Amino acid sequence: MQLREYTRGDLETLAAMVGDEDQMRFYPRPKTRDEASAWIDRNVSLYEERGFGFWFMESVVSSDFLGYCGIRPHEELSDIEMGWHTNKRFWGQGLATEAATACRDLAFDRFDIPRLIAIIHPQHIASRRVAENLGMHPERETLLDDYPCIVYAIERS
């Protein structure tokens, strides 16, 4: 697997994933094509401004879209958020943990970020497992825009 920056050419692929109800069951709702487009634009801006954002997860062998993973400033909290989302065709293969481990290490080692958080729905057991595999711990339960979540955190050692 490789992580690469999103481009405008990735819109249809991303929109198909984030518009799927099953794929988005632990999110407030599926996203529209326009929301997917704005999401790509935000990440492209982050690459230019910060050097990081959420990246496209791609199979090195087949070029299949595996999902996305990365780091970004959280819009409401003062922390850098780490997130991952695997395309449902590839659930259960450890890809989120593999990509998130690389992103965590990049955040700490290259970008010198002292602390990362992950926002996870309490019922999303697989995602909670990824966070715990990364060494993150549950810090608190809260609501963000009426979305119930657990804030997981890890600090650079």
What does this entry show, briefly?
This protein is of the alpha+beta class and 157 residues long. The chain has four helices and seven strands; from the N terminus they run E-H-H-E-E-E-H-E-H-E-E. The chain has a seven-stranded mixed β-sheet with strand order 1-2-3-4-5-7-6, with helices on both faces.
Describe the structure.
With 157 residues, the protein is of the alpha+beta class. The protein has a seven-stranded mixed sheet with strand order 1-2-3-4-5-7-6, with helices on both faces. β3 and β4 (80-86) form a beta hairpin. It starts with a strand and ends with a strand. Helices cover 32% and strands 30% of the residues. The chain is built from four helices and seven strands, in the order βααβββαβαββ. It has helices spanning 11-18, 33-50, 95-109, 125-133, and strands spanning 2-4, 54-58, 65-73, 80-86, 115-120, 137-144, 147-155. It has a single domain, classed as Aminopeptidase. The model has no long low-confidence stretch (mean pLDDT 96).
Q: What's the mean pLDDT score?
A: 96
- The geometry reads as globular
The CATH class turns out to be: Alpha Beta
Assess the beta-strand content as a share of residues. Answer: 25-35%
Spell out the helices and strands N to C: EHHEEEHEHEE
Strand order of the largest sheet: 1-2-3-4-5-7-6
How many beta-strand runs?
Answer: 7
Relative helix content: 25-40%
Q: Unreliable stretches, pLDDT < 50, 5 or more residues?
A: none
CATH architecture: 3-Layer(aba) Sandwich
> Rounded to an integer, what's the Rg over CA atoms?
15 Å
Q: What is the number of domains?
A: 1
Rounded to the nearest angstrom, the distance between the terminal CA atoms is 27 Å
Question: Number of helix segments?
Answer: 4
What is the CATH H-level superfamily? Gcn5-related N-acetyltransferase (GNAT)
The largest pleated sheet is described as: 7 strands, mixed
Q: Structural class of the secondary structure composition?
A: alpha+beta
